[in-house]
Amino acid sequence: MTGHVLCRVEDIPDGTARGFDWPRGETKVKILVARRGDRVFGYRNACPHVGVPLELDPDDFMSLDGLHLQCSTHGAQFRVEDGMCVLGPCIGRPLRSVPVSITGGMVSVGD
Ligand code: FES
């Protein structure tokens, strides 16, 4: 297996997202991983609006209706599948994707 193992698939309940630190050399990059069934979607945890992390409370990444990722600072909402902002001050600008995958029931990030 390549990449950095983050967790088991079941550690991200279906329809939710979790935050992680991705070790990259001497630094750690804040990312989030959203799960939709047997698919996962990874993004840098930085809002395109002003660059802050999306969540104020741990792992609180979803909109109230559970359909979109949401930035808690000014309420921007992003499609889970491609990270595009569809509502809020950074509409039309996407979250930066990171490569995540599932292998053997484990979620990993990296190539
Ligand atoms: S910082 Fe995310 S919407 Fe403003």
How would you summarize what this structure contains?
This protein is mainly beta and 111 residues long. It has strands at residues 4-8, 17-24, 27-36, 39-44, 68-70, 77-79, 85-87, 97-98, 100-103, 106-109.
Secondary structure blueprint with pairings:
Layout: E1 4-8, E2 17-24, E3 27-36, E4 39-44, E5 68-70, E6 77-79, E7 85-87, E8 97-98, E9 100-103, E10 106-109
Antiparallel strand pairs: 1-10, 2-3, 3-4, 4-8, 5-6, 6-7, 9-10
The chain binds FE2/S2 (inorganic) cluster (FES).
FE2/S2 (inorganic) cluster binds next to loops.
3D architecture notes:
The protein is mainly beta and 111 residues long. The protein has a single domain, classed as Rieske [2Fe-2S] iron-sulphur domain (Rieske Iron-sulfur Protein, 3-layer Sandwich), CATH 2.102.10. Helices cover 0% and strands 43% of the residues. It has no helices and 10 strands. It has strands spanning 4-8, 17-24, 27-36, 39-44, 68-70, 77-79, 85-87, 97-98, 100-103, 106-109. It has a 4-stranded antiparallel β-sheet with strand order 2-3-4-8, with no helix packed on it. It has a 3-stranded antiparallel β-sheet with strand order 1-10-9, with no helix packed on it. Strand 9 and strand 10 (106-109) form a beta hairpin. The mean pLDDT is 96. Bound molecules: FE2/S2 (inorganic) cluster.
